[in-house]
């Protein structure tokens, strides 16, 4: 089972192939991808690497976290799963909702009514 690793604080000069070669010294790399900005085509400064096993991934994390690449100390750790939904603003699966707190808000009606 492959393990996904997050690599942050990358210099903009890093490419998919150079990222892969840095991790290849620790074992088999399934994939390496530097995230790119859609509009500018420039690197966003982070990427993801998939290693063949958890042991290889841990060795790469231990060996590369904090290492200087083109003058920048890279951050290497296990990737977290993507958050479900998301999006900007207050819209979610339940639609737009105001504060969920009962002690603030419009209260029981009337101008300025309710508890604060």
Automatic annotation (TrEMBL):
Cytoplasm in keyword set: no
SMART domains: RRM
UniProt GO molecular function: RNA binding
InterPro entries linked to this entry: Nucleotide-bd_a/b_plait_sf, RBD_domain_sf, RRM2_NsCP33-like, RRM_dom, SLIRP/GR-RBP-like
PROSITE patterns in the record: RRM
Pfam families registered for this protein in UniProt: RRM_1 (PF00076)
Protein name: RNA recognition motif-containing protein
